[in-house]
Specification:
alpha/beta; globular
Length: about 230
């Protein structure tokens, strides 16, 4: 079984995905730290993906929101820990996987560990979350399923804080090129344009606000704390 499975949804960015993958292999500690890419079967650069990425690392299917991708992979591939990454990230710190896993294992696998991604952290968000299989099982998902894209990092941040199990590993750098791209809107590709569209913003903010209003955070917190108590 894998020690860690990292999930990366990617679209129309095969060269960025390859760059991220190379950094992943160059810096991971465990041989059993694995990664899977999810690629839409109607991606305009599907053939290029097939050329640059190993077949065994790619899952090709109907186009999904990233939240669907994050939530489905832990049900398909068993691992002790799960994390997610974007194709515009670059792993910088050696043994990043061991450092994050060690933090969670010191806390019996409960909580959310995350790295310094230079973008989300500076905005009070969690952009590179890692959680254990038992944390996933307690919640029933990796991220709030009704979201499309935005507020995912807010969900992980709020849940970890609510549990009092937020583990920020400042010295672990997983650089997010997102910030560089967003500094010049004229360079935005279609992915960025969709993510920051009014449609996505309005949907995800409304979904998250409604979830909070309906005590969703309290319910998720309670589910996890009950499992922690039952484990003792």
């Amino acid at each position: 079984m894998n020690k860690l499975l990292v999930t990366c949804p990617t679209r129309n960015r095969p060269q960025k995905a390859l760059r991220m993958l190379e950094s992943f292999y160059n810096t991971k500690h465990y041989d059993s730290t694995d990664i899977r890419f999810y690629i839409s079967d109607e991606d305009p650069k599907l053939n290029e993906y097939k050329h640059v990425l190993p077949d065994e690392l790619c899952v090709i299917g109907t186009r999904l929101y990233i939240t669907n991708v994050f939530n489905v992979f832990p049900t398909l591939i068993e691992a002790d820990y799960y994390s997610i990454i974007n194709d515009d990230h670059i792993y910088k710190s050696q043994d990043w996987d061991k450092t994050l896993i060690d933090v969670l294992e010191q806390n019996n696998g409960w909580g959310i560990a995350y790295a310094n991604d230079s973008f989300g952290v500076s905005n009070g968000l969690v952009g590179t979350p890692m959680m254990s299989r038992k944390m996933f099982n307690a919640l029933g998902y990796f991220v709030l399923p009704d979201l499309w894209h935005l507020r995912t990092d807010k969900y992980w941040h709020d849940l970890a804080k609510s549990l009092n199990r937020s583990f920020y590993c400042k010295d672990v750098e997983i650089f997010h090129n997102h910030e560089l791209a967003l500094s010049d809107w004229q360079k935005w590709d279609d992915n960025y344009k969709w993510v920051y569209s009014k449609e996505v913003h309005d949907h995800d903010f409304a979904v998250y606000d409604e979830w909070l209003k309906n005590k969703g955070l309290e319910k998720d917190t309670k589910r996890v704390l009950e499992d922690i108590k039952n484990e003792c």
